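Hi U.,

Before I forget, here's the chain from the pilot set. I'm dumping it here mostly so it's searchable later in email.
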Amino acid sequence: MSSDPPRAISATLVTRRSLRWELPPLLLGGALAFLWPIMVPDALGAALAGVQVLWGLGSLLFARRIAEARAPEEVTLQLGAGHVDIVGQGHRRRLVGRKLRGASASRVGQRVGIALQDGSPVLLEVARSAEGRAVLAALGVGHDGFGELLWATGKDHPLYRLRLALRLVGFALLFPCLGLLSPGFMVFAFPQYLMILGALLSARSRSPAGSYLRLFSQGIHVAWPVATVPYGAIQRVEIDATQGVQRLTLEATGAREPGVFRLNVSPNDGLFRPEELEHMTAQVRDAARRARGEGAERAEVGFQVADLGRGNAEVRTWLERIDRLAHGMFHGGEGAYRGRELDREELWAAIEDPDAPTDVRVAAARILGRLGPEARARILDAGKTARDPLVEKRMRIVTDPDREAEAVAEALAAIEAPRRKVRTVG
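Structure:
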């Protein structure tokens, strides 16, 4: 039940150092860059110039280490309702299912890999398939995943642009020492400001010569060279290394001619680790297998529970039918479907299944919500995992013990009214 503490699962985390701890000194360096030493009294100006120069040298030397990829780390995953807490040595991070842009699972060697798009990909590895399903269920992710996964490579990588900007700022911070030599060098103040602004713009711009690999529902999109390939057309995915540069090779067979795409995804620039490349490759391979019908099939809702769906019925009529079935289950009478009582475990499975239709989940919640406060708490926890907050709202409404059936029907109809209005306008 929901009163139990979150389950804990051992996992391996593949990520990079957080910018949260590295941005403050970067911002301080940017502030120093706009203080021209010669504009202040001599002694203070000289000291400020020395600090700027040292900061500039540090920026040039350590730019490559910004947000550096971390070695794989053993962590504990604490599963909650709609979120997963990643607890490691010295740090804690919460991933909220509704804030993720994409998620998918794949087989990585002998383990289960989970890729979550939260700004940049967060990669997790667990030992068993059941653990992987539990993590995804806590985040409200179904069998086929959702959204998109985006791996930027080369000059399109945001860290590449950030490091380039930091180098430009570092170079600009070397100018104050020239200003101290003679008042004539005041002319260097203006170029310094221009370089700082140019560095900020370079950090935000996208390089047309860059590349990234985007995995979405229909296939993969490669930015350089520009191409979109359906998963079913991917015939070969492999990794090779030449002169210290790792390449991801994708061979796709289309209706016209085969295409081969080679991405330099892990040059010696600290942007990628081999483990990230392994996850990326596994995601593409498994997506291609699923497109060819070779993957594990999605678990379907039992046909008796699936019959709880609303169909084309009005909300009030549908709710009356569900209430009659619920009354029959717990008090005898019309509570069976074709002579057989609805199975409670199948109802719970539907409530907690991210892939189950919303009306089926809500109907099952309406039935089992009669079991009492503990059942209602478990139902609401399942609602919190749904990426659509309206699913949780519907479950809260239909399990509210203080609402009469008429009020429940009106509240559900009020939720649907705006959506119907949008459809009719279009």
